Amino acid sequence: MWLREELLKSIWHAFTALDMDNRGKVSKSQLKVLSHSLCTVMKIPHDPVALEEHFRDDDEGPLSNQGYMPYLNRFILDKARDDFDVQEFNKMCWTLCFKKNICTKNLLISDNDCFKVWCIFNFLSEDRYPLVIITEEIEYFLQKLMEAMGMGWNEENFADYKLQLKMKKNCLSAWELIELVGLGIFSKGLNRQTLYMGITEVFQELILDVLKQGYLMKKGHMRKNWTERWFVLKPNSLCYYVSEDLVEQKGVIILDRNCCVESVPDKEGKKCLFIIKCTDKSFEISASDKKKKQEWIQAIQTCIQLLRLELPSPHREARLRRRELRQRQQAEHGDLVERMEQLQVANENKQRQLESMKKKMEEAMAQAALKEDTRRKTQLDLQDRYRLDLEREKMVRQQMEEQVAQKSSELEQYLQRVRELEDMYHQLEEALEDERQAKQDEEAMRKLQARSLHTDIHTMQTSSIAPQTFIFVKNTT
Predict the structure, then answer these.
(1) How far is CA 453 from its chain centroid?
(2) Residue 37 exposure: Cα atoms within 13 Å on the Cβ side
(3) Mean pLDDT of 389-416
(4) CA 20 to 30 Å from 107, out of 118, 195, 245, 454?
(5) Cα distance between residue 127 and residue 124, in whole Å
(6) Helix, strand, or coil (residue 171)
(7) Which helix (H) or strand (E) covers residue 456, if one does?
(8) Are 158 and 142 a contacting pair, CB within 8 Å?
(9) For 193-221, what is each residue's pLDDT tens digit?
(10) CA distance readout (Å), 27 to 47, 66, 129
(11) Which of 75, 79, 11 is nearest to 49 (CA)?
(12) pTM
């Protein structure tokens, strides 16, 4: 399954390169050439009319990648076997696409090194189109490249570069990755040879599945002599060459689930020995020291264990784990974002409720303040009214007091007058009484005088001297 996915990535680059107008479609004539090239390199019999027959009912012209995919799966990929050279297949797709997308003149790396970085991009890129490599995989690749060149990994430099990646949506295309490596942004101060060796080592490790390589001594089966060979360990084989240039291969040890590797005692003047036992043959090998011997034994045991468990190569397994980890992290991030959105919605609802409550409280406070102002104003009005009433009442009271005082004075005067009048009345009464008494006395006197007169008259009449007495009495009166 993984092989088809990686093949499709290379084919996608070739298909995109044939789209000269950038319309997302390629003419049928160009697809015929591409299909023929794919069949040739994948050792599949090519049917020149299959494309026309497959799209016989579709005469709308150029085809999109989605339109070409059913034909590609049915007539090419479904017929593919494992006996073709994958690197030759990648080289063919690279040849179709690289000239259109990048110029290598200003780069520190050769076209062949660009091809290796392109293959690494396809290996590490995400399984979605258009193909991109994300920040985590860029960091993984650059870290491996720095280690292969003997340089330490600088987290601060990559942290600064991450800020630039944010402007590119945290990902790069294949051509941007090639430029990043070719311009030597993370390998300043190193020569082209060091960069070439670093790229080659990472390419062999990730693309060619080279798990370990180095010089070992091997005992021959015919002559029984010991010869130094360059060994290259892959998940299902251990190849050995005359030298590390890999030009002349001397043999291959096929690994399967029935193989085993064991340490053996030193003998024949050879130290650090171990033996690889296969079904039909055994291979005695000598390392230069105990450390290398142990490293090779562990590496070969790991390959055999993976074959027994039917697991992919360590780098593919590691890539799968990284993707699964990112998917889990993205799922967790999605859940976290969803929870955050829910919390934000709840918070917004709470905020709206609080704002509503605050608004109601403000309205209540405003109403209360208005009522308080009204009450205070009413109270002040009442106080002013009461003060005015009190002042008016005070004035009235003062006026009344003045009036009362005046009336009292007038009353006193009146009473004084009354008393005077009473005194006068009493005096008058007394005077009247005195007058009445005088009148009574006078009346009595008169009566007495009258009686006396009468008596005198009578007497005078009786006597001769009566007229003189009468005159004397009258004069006295």
Answers:
(1) 154
(2) 19
(3) 79
(4) 245
(5) 9
(6) strand
(7) helix 314-462
(8) yes
(9) 989 999 999 999 899 889 999 999 999 87
(10) 18, 14, 20
(11) 75
(12) 0.69
User: How far is it, in rounded angstroms, from Cα 377 to Cα 383?
Assistant: 9
What span, in angstroms and rounded, lies between the C-alpha atoms of 291 and 289? Answer: 6
What pLDDT, in 10s, does the model give residues 91-103?
999 999 988 888 8
Q: Are 145 and 198 in contact (CB under 8 A)?
A: yes
How crowded is the C-beta side of 374, counted as CA atoms within 13 Å? 6
Higher pLDDT, 201 or 157: 201
pLDDT over 70 at 58, yes or no: no
As a whole number of angstroms, the distance between CA 404 and CA 177 comes to 116
DSSP state string for 270-331: B-SEEEEE-SS-EEEEE-SSHHHHHHHHHHHHHHHHHHHHT---HHHHHHHHHHHHHHHHHH
477, containing H or E segment: none
Tokens of residue 269, six digits: 């003047």
For residue 379, what are its two tokens?
């109270």
| Average pLDDT estimate for 64-89 | 82
CB 277 within 8 A of CB 260: yes
- Cα gap 56→260, rounded to integer Å: 56
Task: Please state the separation of Cα 470 from the chain's center in Å.
Answer: 158
| 240 contacts: CB under 8 Å, gap ≥ 6 | 216, 218, 229, 230, 231, 232, 249, 250, 251, 252, 253
Q: Over range 132-139, report the average pLDDT.
A: 92
Which residues on adjacent β-strands are paired with residue 240?
231, 251
Averaged pLDDT, 262-281:
89
On the question of pLDDT at 60 being above 60, the answer is no
CA distance 200 to 222: 35
Q: What are the DSSP calls for 96-158, one per residue? A: HHHHHH---TTSSS-HHHHHHHHHHHHHHS-SSSS--EEHHHHHHHHHHHHHHTT----HHHH
**Residue 233 is inside which H or E element, if any?**
strand 226-234
Phi, psi of 83 (to 5 degrees): -95, 5
Contact call for residues 255 and 324 (beta carbons, < 8 A):
no
Rounded CA separation 318/324 (Å): 10
